[in-house]
Known about the structure:
Blueprint: E1 4-5, H1 8-44, H2 46-60, H3 69-74, E2 76-80, H4 89-116, H5 122-153, H6 159-164, E3 166-170, H7 181-217, H8 219-226, E4 244-246, E5 252-254, H9 255-264, E6 281-282
Antiparallel strand pairs: 1-3, 2-3, 4-5, 4-6
Helix pairs in contact: 1-2, 2-4, 4-5, 5-7
Amino acid sequence: MTAVVASQQSLIKSDAKDESHIKTMHSKFINIFQQILGDHLFLKWKAELDVVSSVLYFYLTTLQGSQTLGEEYSGIVQTDLGGKNIPTKFQSLSFTFIQSAWPYIMMKVIDYADYKAPIKSTANLKSTANLKCYIQYFIMVVKKINMLAFYINGGNFSIAKRIIGIKNWLIRPYASDEIDSQTFHWLANLEFIQLVTLFLKFGYELKLQKFSKEIKKNKDKIGIESKSLVKTKCILCFQRIQLASSTFCGHVFCWQCIIEWTTAKSECPVCRSPCYPSRIIHLNHFELS
Length: 289
């Protein structure tokens, strides 16, 4: 019987079945290691056991040139992009590495760099945390893009197979449970919305970081002016400053006065720098009685 390109539902079933068997293998490892090493060492090596379980599963199947249990269950086989040859050993090894070990290795490298880096200031800790955050965002975006492409055109459910260039063929088309393509179109729309939301959230967090840096940049200037607030009058109401609040340019006013001013006119009353009510800094620790 002529083979056809594996359908989306066949690939989903195959991946779900493989995940189920990997979890079963992982639970066996857990029981063995807990009994031999005890709870303390087991918790220390738990992340490594996850990787070992996945690598061992693909070693016993894909790296031996055989179908995985999920592929056998769904009736699909792997080939190169041309569809004429089975994947090479290098392709199978690369797939196993990316699928099982790459995310773990990436995060371990960051943790090691964080451990070895000298802690001279909180800036070092923040930069490492930001790097981890960027890596996590990158992984999420790649997964979302892969799923979007999968729902639209099929191809590969696995990112690793898509990167390596492995194609899946359905050798039992009579056993395929066809799903209306409209269902995958709806899933693609939802995936696209999630991807856009992820980009917007990332952009918003970058904006917050920039906002925090601007606050830090003007902190000293604000502090110098706020020391003399007891003797200073607000230039807007000509009264002693109440609920001291500062613009980003460092000028201090009454909270009510500067809010009313910037609501009517989006600029600092002193230097005419752009200023908005949402960006007024309330100096709570300098509040006057």
